[in-house]
């Protein structure tokens, strides 16, 4: 009988123990919300407006090292009365830590000098970041906001921005080593209206640009360097499936290099062409004005010199 009672008590303790642990963890997180054990998610907001969300349960988050980097900064910080200089002299970012249902906002202030780095916690207290922790952070992809060379190149197709499907971009960090930059990619295949060519434009010109184009039936119509593209491919209205491979080579004196792959559909809109039904016109004669490759008939404008006091109507034949 005694053995049964002990077994029942032990079983009850096993059932209660997880609840006690959970409650204890919750109360601890409320008192100390920004700890490695309590934080489940970090949302980093960069100066240019981009946001990156890292979850402790996400395997990619552990690979990225952002949790370790930020907690190394926080744990080694030494309290100071305030920033030694105006906020405008620093470049920084914010990090929102989530612990259960509580959010804590921290702000980090950096310069390219690891001895001049600080952070402000959720209560408004300032801390000086240790040079070792600051230097380690400045040599990672998360310090992109301090290095113009870390910003990935942008591709525009006829003034429409197209994100790469794959992007590898490295920049020269404070340590003198090339490190991976944070990049924006997308699996979306956008549709871009072009005329007379693909109209590719990079804000940082690549050293190598290779293009492949397939028609609506999947037949390859072009596979070569962009500079060798035949303008005749854009003489008629059609749609191409386009893949672009761009490379920026590593070279002496250059602070970045990388490569990217882009995909988009090129909706070719051939330039409109107008012609008369007769090679010569006599005053008072009837004549037909025809147009080819008209996308929007409402955009046709007719003028005559001298004025004929008549506005013709265009319609699709």
Descriptive notes:
The protein has 317 residues and is of the alpha+beta class. Helix content is 17%, strand content 33%. It contains 4 helices and 19 strands. The strands form 4 sheets. It has a 7-stranded antiparallel sheet with strand order 2-1-4-5-6-7-3. A hairpin with a 7-residue loop joins strand 5 and strand 6. Helix 3 packs antiparallel against helix 4. It is elongated, with a radius of gyration of 31 Å. The relative contact order is 0.09. About 4% of the residues have low confidence.
Give, in order, the helices and strands: HEEHHEEEEEHEEEEEEEEEEEE
Radius of gyration: 31 Å
Number of helices: 4
Given helix and strand content, the structural type is alpha+beta
Helix content: 10-25%
**Mean pLDDT, all residues:** 85
Principal-axis shape: elongated
**Roughly how many Å apart are the termini?**
100 Å
Q: Quick one: biggest sheet?
A: 7 strands, antiparallel
Instruction: Report strand order across the widest sheet.
Output: 2-1-4-5-6-7-3
How much of the polypeptide forms β-strand, as a percent range? 25-35%
Stretches with pLDDT under 50, minimum 5 residues? 19-31
Give the tally of β-strands.
19
SSE blueprint:
Blueprint: H1 2-31, E1 41-45, E2 51-55, H2 59-64, H3 66-75, E3 78-80, E4 91-99, E5 102-110, E6 118-120, E7 126-128, H4 131-138, E8 155-157, E9 160-162, E10 166-172, E11 178-180, E12 191-194, E13 200-202, E14 208-214, E15 220-225, E16 238-248, E17 256-268, E18 273-276, E19 289-292
Parallel strand pairs: 12-17
Antiparallel strand pairs: 1-2, 1-4, 3-7, 4-5, 5-6, 6-7, 8-9, 8-13, 10-11, 10-17, 14-15, 14-16, 16-17, 18-19
Helix pairs in contact: 3-4
């Amino acid at each position: 009988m005694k053995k049964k009672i002990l077994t029942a008590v032990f079983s009850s303790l096993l059932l209660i123990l997880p609840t006690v642990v959970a409650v204890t963890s919750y109360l601890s997180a409320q008192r100390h919300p920004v700890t490695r054990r309590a934080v489940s998610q970090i949302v980093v907001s960069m100066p240019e407006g981009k946001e990156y969300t890292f979850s402790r349960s996400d395997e990619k988050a552990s690979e990225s090292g952002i949790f370790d980097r930020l907690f190394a900064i926080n744990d080694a910080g030494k309290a100071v009365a305030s920033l030694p200089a105006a906020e405008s002299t620093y470049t920084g970012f914010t990090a929102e830590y989530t612990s259960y249902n509580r959010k804590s906002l921290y702000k980090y202030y950096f310069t390219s000098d690891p001895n001049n780095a600080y952070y402000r916690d959720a209560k408004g207290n300032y801390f000086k970041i240790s040079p070792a922790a600051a230097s380690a952070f400045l040599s990672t992809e998360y310090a992109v906001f301090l290095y113009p060379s870390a910003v990935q190149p942008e591709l525009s197709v006829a003034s429409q921005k197209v994100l790469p499907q794959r992007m590898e971009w490295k920049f020269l960090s404070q340590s003198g080593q090339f490190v991976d930059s944070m990049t924006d990619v997308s699996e979306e295949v956008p549709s871009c209206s072009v005329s007379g060519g693909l109209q590719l434009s990079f804000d940082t010109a690549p050293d190598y640009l290779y293009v492949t184009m397939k028609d609506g039936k999947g037949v390859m119509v072009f596979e070569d360097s962009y500079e060798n593209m035949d303008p005749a491919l854009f003489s008629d209205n059609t749609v191409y499936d386009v893949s672009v491979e761009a490379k920026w080579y590593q070279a002496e004196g250059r602070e970045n290099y990388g490569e990217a792959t882009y995909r988009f559909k090129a909706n070719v809109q051939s330039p409109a062409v107008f012609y008369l039904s007769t090679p010569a016109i006599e005053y008072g004669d009837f004549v037909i004005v025809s147009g080819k490759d008209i996308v929007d008939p409402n955009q046709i404008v007719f003028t005559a010199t001298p004025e004929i006091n008549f506005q013709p109507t265009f319609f699709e034949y």
